[in-house]
Protein backbone atom coordinates (compact mmCIF):
# COMPACT_ATOMS: atom_id res chain seq x y z
CA UNK A 1 0.00 0.00 0.00
CA UNK A 2 2.81 2.41 0.89
CA UNK A 3 4.54 1.80 -2.45
CA UNK A 4 1.23 2.26 -4.27
CA UNK A 5 0.64 5.62 -2.61
CA UNK A 6 4.23 6.70 -3.27
CA UNK A 7 3.91 5.72 -6.93
CA UNK A 8 0.78 7.82 -7.32
CA UNK A 9 2.37 10.77 -5.51
CA UNK A 10 5.52 10.62 -7.63
CA UNK A 11 3.47 10.32 -10.80
CA UNK A 12 1.51 13.41 -9.81
CA UNK A 13 4.62 15.35 -8.76
CA UNK A 14 6.78 14.86 -11.85
CA UNK A 15 6.10 15.83 -15.44
CA UNK A 16 8.22 14.01 -18.05
CA UNK A 17 6.84 16.35 -20.74
CA UNK A 18 7.82 19.59 -18.98
CA UNK A 19 10.83 20.34 -21.17
CA UNK A 20 8.80 19.67 -24.33
CA UNK A 21 5.91 21.87 -23.20
CA UNK A 22 8.37 24.76 -22.98
CA UNK A 23 10.04 23.86 -26.26
CA UNK A 24 9.73 26.01 -29.40
CA UNK A 25 10.59 23.15 -31.77
CA UNK A 26 8.49 22.78 -34.92
CA UNK A 27 7.80 19.09 -34.26
CA UNK A 28 6.95 19.69 -30.61
CA UNK A 29 3.63 17.79 -30.79
CA UNK A 30 5.25 14.76 -32.45
CA UNK A 31 7.95 14.65 -29.76
CA UNK A 32 5.35 14.85 -27.01
CA UNK A 33 3.34 12.06 -28.60
CA UNK A 34 6.44 9.87 -28.96
CA UNK A 35 7.46 10.38 -25.33
CA UNK A 36 3.89 9.78 -24.12
CA UNK A 37 3.90 6.45 -25.96
CA UNK A 38 7.39 5.58 -24.69
CA UNK A 39 6.48 6.16 -21.04
CA UNK A 40 2.83 5.02 -21.33
CA UNK A 41 1.69 8.37 -19.97
CA UNK A 42 -1.71 7.89 -21.51
CA UNK A 43 -2.18 4.86 -19.26
CA UNK A 44 -3.63 5.21 -15.77
CA UNK A 45 -0.96 5.48 -13.03
CA UNK A 46 -2.72 2.61 -11.23
CA UNK A 47 -2.17 0.29 -14.17
CA UNK A 48 1.42 1.51 -14.60
CA UNK A 49 2.05 0.72 -10.95
CA UNK A 50 1.05 -2.91 -11.29
CA UNK A 51 3.11 -3.18 -14.47
CA UNK A 52 6.08 -1.77 -12.55
CA UNK A 53 5.55 -4.21 -9.65
CA UNK A 54 5.44 -7.11 -12.11
CA UNK A 55 8.76 -6.03 -13.60
CA UNK A 56 10.31 -5.62 -10.14
CA UNK A 57 9.24 -9.13 -9.14
CA UNK A 58 11.16 -10.36 -12.18
CA UNK A 59 14.26 -8.43 -11.10
CA UNK A 60 13.81 -5.52 -13.51
CA UNK A 61 13.89 -2.11 -11.82
CA UNK A 62 13.37 -0.31 -15.10
CA UNK A 63 15.41 1.87 -17.43
CA UNK A 64 16.40 5.51 -17.36
CA UNK A 65 14.46 6.79 -20.36
CA UNK A 66 16.77 9.77 -20.81
CA UNK A 67 20.06 7.83 -20.93
CA UNK A 68 18.89 4.30 -21.68
CA UNK A 69 20.95 2.97 -18.74
CA UNK A 70 19.35 0.37 -16.49
CA UNK A 71 18.18 1.56 -13.09
CA UNK A 72 19.95 -1.40 -11.47
CA UNK A 73 23.26 -0.15 -12.84
CA UNK A 74 22.60 3.40 -11.59
CA UNK A 75 21.61 2.16 -8.15
CA UNK A 76 24.60 -0.19 -8.01
CA UNK A 77 27.18 2.55 -8.54
CA UNK A 78 25.41 5.03 -6.27
CA UNK A 79 24.97 2.63 -3.36
CA UNK A 80 28.63 1.55 -3.48
CA UNK A 81 29.71 5.19 -3.25
CA UNK A 82 27.29 5.79 -0.39
CA UNK A 83 28.29 2.62 1.48
CA UNK A 84 31.94 3.68 1.40
CA UNK A 85 30.98 6.99 2.97
CA UNK A 86 28.52 5.53 5.48
CA UNK A 87 30.89 2.79 6.68
CA UNK A 88 33.75 5.17 7.36
CA UNK A 89 31.59 7.90 8.91
CA UNK A 90 29.57 5.55 11.13
CA UNK A 91 32.60 3.66 12.46
CA UNK A 92 34.57 6.80 13.30
CA UNK A 93 31.66 8.73 14.78
CA UNK A 94 30.65 5.78 16.97
CA UNK A 95 34.21 5.14 18.15
CA UNK A 96 34.86 8.78 18.98
CA UNK A 97 31.37 9.66 20.19
CA UNK A 98 30.93 6.72 22.57
CA UNK A 99 34.46 7.01 23.95
CA UNK A 100 34.29 10.75 24.58
CA UNK A 101 30.71 10.52 25.87
CA UNK A 102 31.58 7.86 28.44
CA UNK A 103 34.68 9.75 29.62
CA UNK A 104 32.57 12.90 29.87
CA UNK A 105 30.01 11.07 32.02
CA UNK A 106 32.70 9.68 34.30
CA UNK A 107 34.08 13.21 34.70
CA UNK A 108 30.63 14.73 35.31
CA UNK A 109 30.67 18.44 36.22
CA UNK A 110 34.43 18.59 35.70
CA UNK A 111 36.05 21.05 33.29
CA UNK A 112 36.40 18.31 30.67
CA UNK A 113 32.67 17.52 30.91
CA UNK A 114 31.68 21.17 30.41
CA UNK A 115 34.09 21.42 27.49
CA UNK A 116 32.60 18.36 25.77
CA UNK A 117 29.03 19.57 26.40
CA UNK A 118 29.85 22.93 24.81
CA UNK A 119 31.61 21.29 21.86
CA UNK A 120 28.76 18.82 21.32
CA UNK A 121 26.07 21.49 21.25
CA UNK A 122 28.23 23.65 19.00
CA UNK A 123 28.83 20.90 16.44
CA UNK A 124 25.23 19.69 16.61
CA UNK A 125 23.93 23.18 15.81
CA UNK A 126 26.22 23.75 12.83
CA UNK A 127 24.59 23.28 9.40
CA UNK A 128 26.22 20.44 7.49
CA UNK A 129 26.65 22.50 4.31
CA UNK A 130 28.65 25.13 6.25
CA UNK A 131 30.86 22.47 7.82
CA UNK A 132 31.40 20.93 4.38
CA UNK A 133 32.37 24.24 2.81
CA UNK A 134 34.78 25.05 5.66
CA UNK A 135 36.41 21.65 5.30
CA UNK A 136 36.82 22.20 1.58
CA UNK A 137 38.48 25.52 2.26
CA UNK A 138 40.77 24.55 5.14
CA UNK A 139 40.93 20.76 4.94
CA UNK A 140 41.62 20.52 1.21
CA UNK A 141 42.69 23.83 -0.29
CA UNK A 142 44.57 24.90 2.85
CA UNK A 143 46.30 21.52 3.30
CA UNK A 144 47.21 21.30 -0.37
CA UNK A 145 48.78 24.75 -0.11
CA UNK A 146 50.64 23.63 3.03
CA UNK A 147 52.18 20.71 1.10
CA UNK A 148 54.05 23.17 -1.12
CA UNK A 149 56.30 23.93 1.84
CA UNK A 150 55.33 21.52 4.65
CA UNK A 151 57.08 23.08 7.61
CA UNK A 152 55.47 23.60 10.98
CA UNK A 153 56.89 26.30 13.21
CA UNK A 154 58.36 24.92 16.42
CA UNK A 155 56.25 27.40 18.35
CA UNK A 156 53.13 25.87 16.76
CA UNK A 157 54.32 22.38 17.66
CA UNK A 158 54.89 23.48 21.27
CA UNK A 159 51.46 25.11 21.52
CA UNK A 160 49.71 22.04 20.09
CA UNK A 161 51.65 19.80 22.46
CA UNK A 162 50.70 21.89 25.48
CA UNK A 163 47.07 21.95 24.35
CA UNK A 164 46.95 18.17 24.02
CA UNK A 165 48.64 17.79 27.40
CA UNK A 166 45.97 19.96 29.01
CA UNK A 167 43.21 18.00 27.25
CA UNK A 168 44.56 14.66 28.47
CA UNK A 169 44.99 16.09 31.97
CA UNK A 170 41.36 17.23 32.06
CA UNK A 171 40.12 13.90 30.71
CA UNK A 172 42.07 11.68 33.13
CA UNK A 173 41.70 13.87 36.22
CA UNK A 174 42.86 12.66 39.63
CA UNK A 175 45.24 14.19 42.14
CA UNK A 176 47.51 17.12 41.38
CA UNK A 177 50.47 14.78 41.02
CA UNK A 178 48.60 12.53 38.62
CA UNK A 179 47.38 15.48 36.57
CA UNK A 180 50.90 16.81 36.30
CA UNK A 181 52.22 13.42 35.16
CA UNK A 182 49.47 13.07 32.54
CA UNK A 183 50.08 16.60 31.29
CA UNK A 184 53.81 16.05 30.89
CA UNK A 185 53.38 12.67 29.19
CA UNK A 186 50.65 13.94 26.84
CA UNK A 187 52.54 17.09 25.91
CA UNK A 188 55.84 15.26 25.43
CA UNK A 189 54.22 12.53 23.31
CA UNK A 190 52.46 15.07 21.08
CA UNK A 191 55.54 17.25 20.64
CA UNK A 192 57.67 14.17 19.94
CA UNK A 193 55.22 12.90 17.32
CA UNK A 194 54.99 16.26 15.54
CA UNK A 195 58.76 16.66 15.67
CA UNK A 196 59.15 13.23 14.08
CA UNK A 197 56.73 14.17 11.30
CA UNK A 198 58.58 17.41 10.74
CA UNK A 199 62.12 16.02 10.71
CA UNK A 200 61.35 12.88 8.70
CA UNK A 201 59.65 14.77 5.84
CA UNK A 202 56.57 12.70 6.65
CA UNK A 203 54.14 15.15 5.04
CA UNK A 204 55.55 14.47 1.57
CA UNK A 205 56.51 10.81 2.11
CA UNK A 206 54.09 9.48 4.74
CA UNK A 207 54.66 5.95 6.01
CA UNK A 208 54.40 3.87 9.14
CA UNK A 209 57.32 1.51 8.66
CA UNK A 210 58.36 -1.34 10.96
CA UNK A 211 59.69 0.81 13.82
CA UNK A 212 56.64 3.05 14.07
CA UNK A 213 54.47 -0.05 13.65
CA UNK A 214 56.13 -1.57 16.72
CA UNK A 215 55.72 1.64 18.75
CA UNK A 216 52.06 2.18 17.81
CA UNK A 217 51.29 -1.51 18.25
CA UNK A 218 52.79 -1.51 21.73
CA UNK A 219 50.80 1.57 22.71
CA UNK A 220 47.59 0.01 21.37
CA UNK A 221 48.32 -3.23 23.23
CA UNK A 222 48.73 -1.45 26.56
CA UNK A 223 45.61 0.66 25.91
CA UNK A 224 43.36 -2.29 25.00
CA UNK A 225 44.56 -4.48 27.85
CA UNK A 226 44.46 -1.59 30.31
CA UNK A 227 40.82 -0.82 29.53
CA UNK A 228 39.29 -4.25 28.97
CA UNK A 229 41.48 -6.57 31.08
CA UNK A 230 43.58 -4.44 33.39
CA UNK A 231 47.35 -4.24 33.27
CA UNK A 232 47.53 -6.54 36.30
CA UNK A 233 46.23 -9.33 34.03
CA UNK A 234 49.67 -10.45 32.91
CA UNK A 235 48.42 -13.20 30.58
CA UNK A 236 46.32 -10.71 28.62
CA UNK A 237 49.19 -8.23 28.51
CA UNK A 238 51.70 -10.83 27.29
CA UNK A 239 49.16 -12.01 24.72
CA UNK A 240 48.78 -8.49 23.32
CA UNK A 241 52.53 -7.83 23.27
CA UNK A 242 53.20 -11.22 21.64
CA UNK A 243 50.70 -10.38 18.91
CA UNK A 244 52.50 -7.06 18.36
CA UNK A 245 55.81 -8.89 17.90
CA UNK A 246 54.20 -11.36 15.49
CA UNK A 247 52.76 -8.45 13.49
CA UNK A 248 56.19 -6.81 13.42
CA UNK A 249 57.77 -10.00 12.08
CA UNK A 250 55.03 -10.55 9.48
CA UNK A 251 55.34 -6.96 8.25
CA UNK A 252 58.26 -7.87 5.98
CA UNK A 253 56.82 -10.94 4.16
CA UNK A 254 53.50 -9.10 3.76
CA UNK A 255 55.24 -6.54 1.55
CA UNK A 256 55.93 -9.35 -0.92
CA UNK A 257 52.36 -10.62 -0.67
CA UNK A 258 50.98 -7.17 -1.44
CA UNK A 259 53.07 -7.03 -4.61
CA UNK A 260 51.31 -10.12 -6.02
CA UNK A 261 49.32 -10.26 -9.24
CA UNK A 262 46.03 -10.03 -7.33
CA UNK A 263 46.92 -6.45 -6.41
CA UNK A 264 47.70 -5.36 -9.96
CA UNK A 265 45.92 -2.79 -12.08
CA UNK A 266 42.51 -4.47 -11.99
CA UNK A 267 42.83 -5.62 -8.36
CA UNK A 268 41.10 -8.88 -9.25
CA UNK A 269 40.60 -10.98 -6.14
CA UNK A 270 42.24 -8.38 -3.86
CA UNK A 271 39.12 -7.91 -1.76
CA UNK A 272 38.72 -11.58 -0.92
CA UNK A 273 42.42 -11.96 -0.22
CA UNK A 274 42.19 -9.09 2.26
CA UNK A 275 39.09 -10.64 3.87
CA UNK A 276 40.95 -13.94 4.21
CA UNK A 277 43.96 -12.18 5.72
CA UNK A 278 41.69 -10.41 8.22
CA UNK A 279 40.18 -13.74 9.29
CA UNK A 280 43.62 -15.32 9.65
CA UNK A 281 44.79 -12.28 11.63
CA UNK A 282 41.93 -12.62 14.08
CA UNK A 283 42.53 -16.36 14.43
CA UNK A 284 46.22 -15.77 15.22
CA UNK A 285 45.29 -13.33 17.99
CA UNK A 286 42.78 -15.79 19.44
CA UNK A 287 45.22 -18.71 19.31
CA UNK A 288 47.92 -16.72 21.10
CA UNK A 289 45.49 -15.85 23.88
CA UNK A 290 44.36 -19.46 24.11
CA UNK A 291 47.91 -20.73 24.34
CA UNK A 292 48.67 -18.46 27.27
CA UNK A 293 45.73 -20.15 28.98
CA UNK A 294 44.69 -19.31 32.50
CA UNK A 295 41.26 -19.34 34.14
CA UNK A 296 40.26 -16.18 32.29
CA UNK A 297 41.80 -17.07 28.91
CA UNK A 298 38.78 -15.67 27.06
CA UNK A 299 39.78 -12.13 28.04
CA UNK A 300 43.31 -12.77 26.76
CA UNK A 301 41.96 -14.19 23.50
CA UNK A 302 39.69 -11.19 22.93
CA UNK A 303 42.56 -8.81 23.64
CA UNK A 304 44.75 -10.76 21.22
CA UNK A 305 42.12 -10.57 18.47
CA UNK A 306 41.65 -6.82 18.95
CA UNK A 307 45.39 -6.08 18.87
CA UNK A 308 45.91 -8.42 15.91
CA UNK A 309 43.24 -6.65 13.85
CA UNK A 310 44.75 -3.26 14.68
CA UNK A 311 48.20 -4.49 13.63
CA UNK A 312 46.77 -5.86 10.39
CA UNK A 313 45.01 -2.56 9.70
CA UNK A 314 48.26 -0.64 10.33
CA UNK A 315 50.18 -2.86 7.89
CA UNK A 316 47.47 -2.33 5.28
CA UNK A 317 47.49 1.45 5.80
CA UNK A 318 51.28 1.49 5.57
CA UNK A 319 51.13 -0.21 2.17
CA UNK A 320 48.57 2.30 0.93
CA UNK A 321 50.69 5.20 2.17
CA UNK A 322 53.70 3.91 0.24
CA UNK A 323 52.11 5.03 -3.04
CA UNK A 324 51.47 8.56 -1.73
CA UNK A 325 54.49 10.24 -3.47
CA UNK A 326 53.61 9.10 -7.03
CA UNK A 327 49.90 9.68 -6.35
CA UNK A 328 50.53 13.22 -5.14
CA UNK A 329 52.82 13.90 -8.10
CA UNK A 330 50.16 12.65 -10.54
CA UNK A 331 47.71 15.17 -9.06
CA UNK A 332 50.13 18.09 -9.30
CA UNK A 333 51.04 18.11 -5.63
CA UNK A 334 47.41 18.66 -4.54
CA UNK A 335 46.34 15.18 -3.41
CA UNK A 336 43.27 16.08 -1.32
CA UNK A 337 40.30 16.33 -3.72
CA UNK A 338 37.19 18.41 -3.11
CA UNK A 339 34.64 16.62 -5.29
CA UNK A 340 33.66 13.23 -6.72
CA UNK A 341 34.51 9.72 -5.52
CA UNK A 342 37.43 8.98 -7.85
CA UNK A 343 39.95 10.74 -10.06
CA UNK A 344 39.05 10.28 -13.76
CA UNK A 345 41.73 8.57 -15.84
CA UNK A 346 44.09 8.13 -12.88
CA UNK A 347 45.22 4.58 -13.67
CA UNK A 348 47.74 2.85 -11.41
CA UNK A 349 47.55 -0.42 -9.50
CA UNK A 350 45.16 -1.53 -6.77
CA UNK A 351 46.92 0.46 -4.05
CA UNK A 352 46.72 3.70 -6.03
CA UNK A 353 42.99 3.16 -6.51
CA UNK A 354 42.53 2.49 -2.79
CA UNK A 355 44.46 5.64 -1.87
CA UNK A 356 42.40 7.63 -4.37
CA UNK A 357 39.18 6.32 -2.80
CA UNK A 358 40.49 7.19 0.68
CA UNK A 359 41.42 10.75 -0.25
CA UNK A 360 38.00 11.31 -1.80
CA UNK A 361 36.41 10.05 1.44
CA UNK A 362 38.32 12.33 3.80
CA UNK A 363 36.26 15.52 3.54
CA UNK A 364 32.70 14.11 3.28
CA UNK A 365 33.48 11.59 6.03
CA UNK A 366 34.83 14.34 8.29
CA UNK A 367 31.65 16.36 7.68
CA UNK A 368 29.36 13.51 8.71
CA UNK A 369 31.61 12.50 11.62
CA UNK A 370 31.59 15.98 13.15
CA UNK A 371 27.79 16.14 13.09
CA UNK A 372 27.19 12.54 14.20
CA UNK A 373 29.93 12.72 16.83
CA UNK A 374 28.01 15.44 18.64
CA UNK A 375 24.83 13.35 18.74
CA UNK A 376 26.50 10.09 19.79
CA UNK A 377 28.46 11.90 22.49
CA UNK A 378 25.25 13.24 24.00
CA UNK A 379 23.51 9.85 23.73
CA UNK A 380 26.36 7.90 25.32
CA UNK A 381 26.93 10.49 28.07
CA UNK A 382 23.30 10.57 29.18
CA UNK A 383 23.04 6.77 28.96
CA UNK A 384 26.23 6.27 30.98
CA UNK A 385 25.06 8.68 33.67
CA UNK A 386 21.78 6.82 33.98
CA UNK A 387 23.51 3.43 34.17
CA UNK A 388 26.12 4.53 36.73
CA UNK A 389 23.34 5.61 39.11
CA UNK A 390 21.66 2.21 39.10
CA UNK A 391 21.54 -0.03 42.19
CA UNK A 392 23.60 -2.82 40.64
CA UNK A 393 26.48 -0.37 40.05
CA UNK A 394 26.43 0.61 43.71
CA UNK A 395 26.33 -3.07 44.63
CA UNK A 396 29.32 -3.82 42.42
CA UNK A 397 31.29 -1.05 44.07
CA UNK A 398 30.20 -2.20 47.53
CA UNK A 399 31.56 -5.67 46.72
CA UNK A 400 34.99 -4.09 46.26
CA UNK A 401 35.28 -4.49 42.48
CA UNK A 402 37.86 -2.22 40.83
CA UNK A 403 36.42 0.89 39.19
CA UNK A 404 37.65 -0.33 35.78
CA UNK A 405 35.62 -3.53 36.13
CA UNK A 406 32.57 -1.60 37.30
CA UNK A 407 32.74 0.79 34.34
CA UNK A 408 33.75 -1.62 31.57
CA UNK A 409 31.97 -4.84 32.50
CA UNK A 410 28.89 -3.48 34.26
CA UNK A 411 28.39 0.03 32.93
CA UNK A 412 29.68 0.06 29.35
CA UNK A 413 27.54 -2.79 27.98
CA UNK A 414 24.31 -1.37 29.38
CA UNK A 415 25.25 2.05 28.05
CA UNK A 416 25.09 0.62 24.53
CA UNK A 417 21.45 -0.47 24.88
CA UNK A 418 19.84 2.87 23.87
CA UNK A 419 22.37 3.26 21.04
CA UNK A 420 21.31 -0.13 19.67
CA UNK A 421 17.99 1.36 18.57
CA UNK A 422 19.50 4.58 17.23
CA UNK A 423 22.55 3.52 15.23
CA UNK A 424 20.89 1.09 12.75
CA UNK A 425 18.28 3.71 11.86
CA UNK A 426 20.96 6.37 11.46
CA UNK A 427 22.95 4.09 9.18
CA UNK A 428 19.99 3.41 6.94
CA UNK A 429 19.20 7.11 6.85
CA UNK A 430 22.73 7.76 5.60
CA UNK A 431 22.48 4.95 3.06
CA UNK A 432 19.40 6.74 1.78
CA UNK A 433 21.81 9.51 0.95
CA UNK A 434 23.50 12.34 2.78
CA UNK A 435 21.95 14.72 0.25
CA UNK A 436 23.58 17.98 1.34
CA UNK A 437 27.03 16.49 1.92
CA UNK A 438 26.94 14.63 -1.39
CA UNK A 439 25.82 17.81 -3.15
CA UNK A 440 28.64 19.95 -1.71
CA UNK A 441 31.30 17.37 -2.58
CA UNK A 442 29.63 16.28 -5.85
CA UNK A 443 29.72 12.68 -4.66
CA UNK A 444 27.52 10.43 -6.86
CA UNK A 445 25.72 8.65 -4.05
CA UNK A 446 22.14 7.63 -3.38
CA UNK A 447 21.05 11.09 -2.28
CA UNK A 448 22.30 12.73 -5.45
CA UNK A 449 20.77 9.97 -7.55
CA UNK A 450 17.36 10.60 -5.96
CA UNK A 451 17.54 14.37 -6.41
CA UNK A 452 18.74 14.01 -10.02
CA UNK A 453 16.00 11.47 -10.80
CA UNK A 454 13.32 13.79 -9.44
CA UNK A 455 14.64 16.69 -11.49
CA UNK A 456 14.75 14.59 -14.65
CA UNK A 457 11.30 13.03 -14.04
CA UNK A 458 12.78 9.51 -13.91
CA UNK A 459 9.93 7.69 -12.14
CA UNK A 460 11.49 4.22 -12.34
CA UNK A 461 14.68 5.48 -10.70
CA UNK A 462 12.76 7.35 -7.98
CA UNK A 463 10.63 4.31 -7.18
CA UNK A 464 13.65 2.00 -7.13
CA UNK A 465 15.31 4.37 -4.64
CA UNK A 466 12.19 4.45 -2.45
CA UNK A 467 11.82 0.67 -2.62
CA UNK A 468 15.42 0.06 -1.55
CA UNK A 469 15.46 2.64 1.26
CA UNK A 470 12.09 1.41 2.60
CA UNK A 471 13.32 -2.19 2.57
CA UNK A 472 16.52 -1.19 4.34
CA UNK A 473 14.52 0.73 6.95
CA UNK A 474 12.54 -2.43 7.74
CA UNK A 475 15.75 -4.45 7.94
CA UNK A 476 17.30 -1.81 10.19
CA UNK A 477 14.44 -2.12 12.69
CA UNK A 478 14.80 -5.90 12.73
CA UNK A 479 18.56 -5.62 13.22
CA UNK A 480 18.01 -3.12 16.03
CA UNK A 481 15.72 -5.59 17.82
CA UNK A 482 18.28 -8.38 17.43
CA UNK A 483 21.14 -6.21 18.71
CA UNK A 484 18.95 -5.10 21.60
CA UNK A 485 18.37 -8.74 22.58
CA UNK A 486 22.09 -9.55 22.31
CA UNK A 487 23.14 -6.62 24.49
CA UNK A 488 20.35 -6.88 27.06
CA UNK A 489 19.96 -10.45 28.43
CA UNK A 490 16.58 -9.50 29.91
CA UNK A 491 15.11 -9.45 26.39
CA UNK A 492 14.42 -12.59 24.39
CA UNK A 493 13.37 -12.66 20.74
CA UNK A 494 11.17 -15.73 21.32
CA UNK A 495 9.39 -14.23 24.32
Structure overview:
30% of the residues are buried. Helix 5 crosses helix 15 (350-388), helix 10 (209-228) runs antiparallel to helix 11 (234-257) and helix 11 (234-257) packs parallel to helix 13 (297-321). The chain has 20 helices and no strands. The protein is mainly alpha-helical. It is globular. The model has no long low-confidence stretch (mean pLDDT 86). It has helices at 2-13, 18-21, 28-39, 45-57, 71-106, 111-125, 128-146, 154-172, 176-199, 209-228, 234-257, 270-292, 297-321, 324-330, 350-388, 391-398, 403-431, 435-440, 446-455, 459-487.
Give a short overview.
With 495 residues, the chain is mostly helical.
- The arrangement of helices and strands along the chain is HHHHHHHHHHHHHHHHHHHH
Structural class: mainly alpha
In total, the number of strands is: 0
- Average pLDDT, all residues: 86
> What are the segments in which pLDDT stays under 50 over at least 5 consecutive residues?
none
Terminal Cα separation, in Å? Answer: 30 Å
Strand proportion, as a percent range, falls in under 5%
Radius of gyration: 27 Å
Main sheet summary: none
The rough form would be described as: globular
Tally of DSSP helical segments:
20
Percent in helix: over 70%
Helix and strand topology:
Layout: H1 2-13, H2 18-21, H3 28-39, H4 45-57, H5 71-106, H6 111-125, H7 128-146, H8 154-172, H9 176-199, H10 209-228, H11 234-257, H12 270-292, H13 297-321, H14 324-330, H15 350-388, H16 391-398, H17 403-431, H18 435-440, H19 446-455, H20 459-487
Helix pairs in contact: 1-20, 5-6, 5-15, 5-17, 5-19, 5-20, 6-15, 7-15, 8-9, 10-11, 10-13, 11-12, 11-13, 12-13, 15-17, 16-17, 17-20, 19-20
